[in-house]
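call fold target=Pirin
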Amino acid sequence: RVEHEDHVGNKGVIGPGGVQWMTAGRGIVHSEFPKSKGDEMLHGFQLWINLPAKDKMIRPKYQDYQADRIPTFQSPDSKYSVRVLSGEHRGTRGPIEMINPGLLLDVRLEEGAEFEQAFPAEWNSFAYVYEKEGEATLGGKPPAERHSHVFDNKGSTLTATASGTLKFLLFAGRPINEPIVQYGPFVMNTEEEIQQAFMDFRSGRLMNPDVEIVT
């Protein structure tokens, strides 16, 4: 389990299969603390998604989703399943609404599975394979376990097959096509904006309580 707390007043604990979704916006001070019992091993993923310049100063938000709130698509032949976190797969839509249109799927293939996902051809996409046993293909190539695989955006359909087990997270989204400047926890468009972000943090402006709290 993982516990979240932030300066806005949000608190939450997610269990196995749960998701924390936080939009930092103009700034949020937060902590994520493992709540495992005894010798339990905690495995998780952290993904940072950039915001367009016009949305970087929106109010911060936080929401957690327990596993039972994330819809799952099961293929008719029961050879693969997809937990749909954001976007859509074969009519099953995820609960997370991204500010910039995107797709986030947890895909699990078993022996003999054939998976296919369509999205706009201009979107960027990549996958992270977190478990693999036996032969498999992902985007037409053999994937490596515990590696990210970046796909070109020359087509609008991604395919995957497995002769054993293949589990991966699939991410896709519309390119923002803006400059990125990152330093520490701040991601902006220019060096000047990064300096301003540090000034806001040091002066306490970032801790302004006039923010939206999502419960």
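return ok
Residues 211-215 have pLDDT under 50 and may be disordered. The two ends are 19 Å apart (CA to CA).
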